[in-house]
From TrEMBL:
PROSITE patterns: ABC_TRANSPORTER_1, ABC_TRANSPORTER_2. The keyword tRNA-binding does not apply. GO terms for molecular function: ATP binding; ATP hydrolysis activity. InterPro entries: AAA+_ATPase (IPR003593), ABC_tran_Xtn (IPR032781), ABC_transporter-like_ATP-bd (IPR003439), ABC_transporter-like_CS (IPR017871), ABCF (IPR050611), P-loop_NTPase (IPR027417). The keyword Coiled coil applies. Keywords: ATP-binding, Coiled coil, Nucleotide-binding, Repeat. It comes from Monosporascus ibericus. Residues 372-430 form a coiled coil. This is ABC transporter domain-containing protein. Residues 45-385, 485-741 form the ABC transporter domain. Pfam families: ABC_tran (PF00005), ABC_tran_Xtn (PF12848).
Length: 743
């Protein structure tokens, strides 16, 4: 069976012949899943006849998608392996085998304006006009209850019943049925256009049936009053009254009050103030719209909840609250099945299962990410040793067989020849695994079902994945000592507004910070605390109101902005043919040749044709991060100021960057909400185990000079050093998280 999205996604899977009377909509068990992303249909060579599908990129080939009800899955995979495509295929039910009744809610990291949901009533969106004028609270409630649509239907029925016209109730009922049929017709038509193959045939049959139903009701809808029989009038008047009562129950004040209470609790947990709840959604920035979308997803009733990088726009308080909230929901009586994508390793620790997409296949692991990485490493070491030992043993047996064969032929000893041939056949047919997957002795009829050329499976060592490339160039020499950057008594307030005479409050007050070569400084804080202003001062995008900021005369500073990816996306759209190599060449103005530029891009994971042939507008978020880092590093800076640099990256790239920055001899100022990343880069932890990790790494191999590793918190405009580092900051937020959960 086959299905196709309107643009690019083709899905196939094996289907059971058995009728499952009562399926569990929170579970998926799909065999033989293949997903291909294409560039859409293209005309045939002669330009006539049916369009042909262009060749595509395979995401999955004959994989098994198995989700158990109520479990929490962390979806892992490198950038470009197809995680977002898989999630979209699940959410849009393009995969044959996903029941249409399954309520699936998807939050996409690339969509900051709305949550994509299925067409079930529980997830229907408000109309466009209502959505544009809605406040944050109204928007979230509407997505969970379809309140406006229900109220509109109540208004239609109430107007007819209360009109005094004996035919008013009937007309209102028929108007409501007509509107519902038109909506259903629209959805069936959309479904038929989205799908192909056997599922497309079913969708077209359903479309034909609803078209027939609409045509039949049209004559009834346009029927004149005098042609309506008294029996129909009485029956439909009663139906209208009953339906009105049902609709009024759906918007019962007590029920809506409960929904509103839950919505406020979720929005407050995600950082919204009471004042922000009443602001129009259209006035929000992209980050706050994403939070609104996340709140909508969390409030809706869902069988499968899919969250793709939900922490991208949250501060640490919001991340910790969301982590606690999802854990609380998972422990409830009837939790949804959760699929989570996140580069934040501390955050995904809430998941109990791993779903790994790699080599066009899906694999599963029960446990967390450190356990998985440890087990994979151990398994590979064990299998490698077993295979090497078997190969030596096999070589010894082969030599013995060859010697016996030579001696048998020389002496015309047929018994020895037959014995040698028998041993050779056994070597060819029964060589391989000696233990099964559970560690017991291998048995053919139990451990290797089906037909095979040999009676034992080969020892399959997991293929060596090419390590994520992330090499940082050495900073240039300063030639004479001195602090790289120094802030002494720095304060900052925005200029006085022309509308008011009062001076605006201080954003930063009495900041003292000195950064020397090799230092590691982490800056933590909640949104609105002054981190962004402090960063702008450090990179001299703005000047202090009072105090002094001095820098080393030969300082080369590299700044990665949290808005860098969006800026590159805009640049790519304005110049459709612009490539990463061309953009970088234009900026270096001849200071580096093409070979050096390619070497830099390649060391950061943008090699060969990816750098020179693929336009910037077609690069993924993770690839754009690498390009921006190349723009920062080509000058070989002494100091890196990194603001939310891990956003858009997969967990393996984050780990590679963590290791590279930890060992780099230059100085780093890091602003991020990723606790695991700060522990590695700033605090120097090699392993962040459950016990907190105790292994530290001093900067600079062979450098006896101790390096400073400080974590600061910006709060209320003041910069305070945290003696306990990241853990102290996390502990300070625990009480607030608990209070938000108990609201």
């Amino acid at each position: 069976m086959e299905a196709e999205s309107v643009a690019t996604i083709l899905c196939t899977s094996k289907q059971t012949r058995f009728n499952i009377a009562a399926p569990n909509y929170r579970e998926l068990d799909i065999e033989g899943l293949s997903i291909t992303v294409t560039s859409g249909p293209r005309p045939n060579a002669k330009g006539k006849g049916k369009a042909k599908q262009s060749e595509g990129t395979e995401i999955l080939t004959n994989a098994k998608l198995r989700l158990k009800a109520g479990q929490r899955y962390a979806l892992l995979g490198r950038n470009g392996t197809g995680k977002s495509t898989l999630l979209k295929a699940i959410a849009e039910k393009l995969i044959p085998g996903i029941p249409e009744q399954t309520r699936i809610v998807l939050l996409q990291q690339t969509d900051a304006s709305h949550v994509n949901v299925d067409d079930a009533p529980q997830g229907s969106s408000p109309s466009g006009n209502e959505s544009r004028a809605a406040t944050v609270l109204e928007e979230v409630i509407e997505r969970a209850t379809s309140k406006h649509e229900v109220e509109r239907e109540i208004e239609v029925l109430s107007s007819g019943i209360e009109s005094g016209n004996p035919y008013g109730a009937l007309r209102g009922l028929r108007k409501l049925h007509y509107d519902r049929l038109q909506k259903e017709l629209f959805l069936k038509d959309k479904d038929a256009r989205l799908r192909s193959g056997a599922r497309g045939l079913q969708a077209r049959k359903a479309l034909t049936a609803i078209e027939k139903k609409v045509a039949e009701f049209q004559s009834q809808y346009e029927q004149r009053d005098e042609d309506i029989s008294p029996e129909d009038l009485a029956r439909e008047t009663t139906e209208a009254a009953d339906l009105l009562a049902d609709l009024q129950l759906q918007v019962d004040p007590s029920k809506l009050a409960d929904v509103e209470t839950r919505a406020k609790k979720i929005l407050t947990g995600l950082g919204f103030s009471d004042e922000q709840l009443q602001k129009p959604v259209s006035n929000l920035s992209g980050g706050w719209r994403m939070r609104t979308s996340l709140a909508s997803a969390l409030l809706q009733e869902a069988d499968i909840l899919i969250l793709d990088e939900p922490t991208n726009f949250l501060d640490l308080l919001g991340i910790m609250w969301l982590q606690r909230h999802l854990t609380f929901v998972a422990e409830s009586a009837d939790p949804p099945t959760l699929i989570l994508v996140s580069h934040d390793r501390d955050f995904i620790s809430l998941c109990t299962e791993l779903l790994i997409i790699n080599h066009k296949d899906l694999t599963y692991f029960h446990g967390d990410l450190p356990m998985y990485e440890s087990s994979q490493a151990e398994k590979k070491v064990y299998l490698t040793k077993v295979k090497e030992a078997q190969e030596k043993h096999k070589e010894h047996i082969q030599q013995t067989i060859q010697r016996n064969m030579r001696e048998g032929k020389a002496k015309d000893d047929q018994n020895k020849i037959r014995q040698a041939k028998s041993r050779q056949k056994k070597l060819d047919d029964r060589w391989g695994l000696e233990v099964n997957a559970k560690g017991g002795r291998f048995k053919l009829n139990r451990d290797l079902p089906g037909y095979h050329y040999t009676s034992r499976a080969e020892i399959d060592i997991p293929p060596e994945q090419k390590p994520v490339s992330f090499d940082l160039p050495q900073p240039t020499e300063l030639r004479f000592p001195g602090a790289l950057l120094s802030l002494e008594g720095v304060s900052f307030r925005y200029p006085k507004s022309t509308k008011t005479r009062a001076a605006p409050p201080l954003v930063l007050s009495d900041i003292n910070l000195t950064i020397n070569e090799g230092d590691r400084v982490g800056i933590l804080g909640l949104n609105g605390g002054g981190k962004s202003t402090l960063i702008k001062l450090l990179v001299e995008e703005t000047r202090p109101t009072s105090g002094t900021l001095t820098s080393h005369p030969r300082l080369k500073l590299g700044y990665y902005s949290q808005h860098a990816v969006e800026a590159l996306q805009r640049a790519g759209l304005s110049e459709p043919g612009l490539t990463a190599l061309a953009l970088l060449a234009r900026e270096v103005s001849g200071e580096l040749d093409e070979g050096e530029l390619r070497g830099l891009l390649g060391s950061l994971g943008l090699p060969g044709r990816l750098a020179s042939d693929v336009p910037v507008r077609k690069l993924s978020g993770g690839q754009l991060v690498r390009l921006e880092i190349a723009r920062v590093l080509w000058r070989r800076p002494h100091l890196l100021v990194l603001d939310e640099v891990t956003t858009h990256l997969d967990y393996e790239t984050v780990a590679a960057m963590r290791g590279a920055l930890r060992d780099w001899p230059g100085a780093v100022v890091l602003v991020t909400h990723d606790r695991w990343f700060v522990r590695g880069v700033v605090e120097g932890l090699v392993d962040d185990d459950s016990d907190g990790g105790s292994d530290t790494l001093s900067l600079g191999d062979g450098d006896e000079t101790p390096r400073r590793r400080d974590v600061y918190r910006v709060r209320g405009g003041r910069l305070v050093r945290l003696e306990g580092g990241v853990q102290e900051f996390e502990d300070s937020l625990e009480k607030r998280v608990k209070k938000l959960m108990d609201m």
